[in-house]
Amino acid sequence: MKLLRRLVLVLATLIMAVTGGPAALALDYPAHTVRIVVGFGPGTSPDIVARLLGDKLFQAWGKPVVIENTVGANGNIAGERVARAEPDGHTLLLAANPAIVINPSLYEKMPFDPVRDLVPISQVCAYANILIVNNDVPAKNVQELVALARAQPGALTYGSAGFGSTLHLAGELLKSMAKVDILHVPYRGAVFSQELVAGRLSMAFVPPTGAFPLAREGKVRALAVTSLERHAGAPDLPTMAESGFPSFDLTVWFGLMAPARTSPAIVEKLHRETVRILAMPEMRKRFDDLGIEPIGNSPAEFAAVIDGDSEMGEAD
After folding, report:
1. Segment holding 274, helix H or strand E
2. Which of 59, 209, 226, 258 shows the smallest number of beta carbons within 10 Å?
3. Any residues with CB less than 8 A from the CB of 179 and at least 6 apart, and which?
């Protein structure tokens, strides 16, 4: 049913693009400042991605593009902010998969419906997290870390950006699969990385933008990546699957979305511009340097990803 609603939306977009209709709106878009709402704090991976995208949109349009960090409830506050915004394309959401496909299963009551209240524009990027440990932890690989946790139940700790974040879910997945007791310590934002470096945490799953610089500087030790394939930026780093957990696969994606009822012509213009920007050589290099994979798919393809991930979440 969700996929059917998405297909109807796509067909409407195509029909209006051919027949005109609201296409005139796209000619005048944007008319003023565009806001990209991000459910994470400054300096985090999504914030960096949003600012890279926003800078290029400003260069293309000559209109200000402001990044608005609206933190809280694992992205729900940011999602609600955009879902309730005027559907004129001037308030957008850089959405993460937790808020769109995971939160509906975690929260008894959602402040918005991701499928009903938002329209997909394009997936922007994806990345796998990196399992890192404090240098004082005497574990050189995941199996040694698991053995240490089994020998000292409840003694090890892992930090995350809050309950329900992918970093939290990765930690709980490891605990469940390894059958170990590791204490979760939630933080507001990405400050837990500094807590780990300072020795107040044992371990954490961290985005590559934070994990790789810390590992290169020798401040932490990287043990594994959460995708099924090795990370191109660290080909010697094993996957969690290679480390004894074959089905461990947890990838984070971010995508641009707009309020429902936004003109299909504006959605299409945003999609074309996003794809063009992500294809720029300098952008691809910047993303590569950050350890992030640019995507740039169509609204229909993005909708299919959301539907597929939502169905997996419901099945779980």
Report:
1. helix 264-278
2. 59
3. none
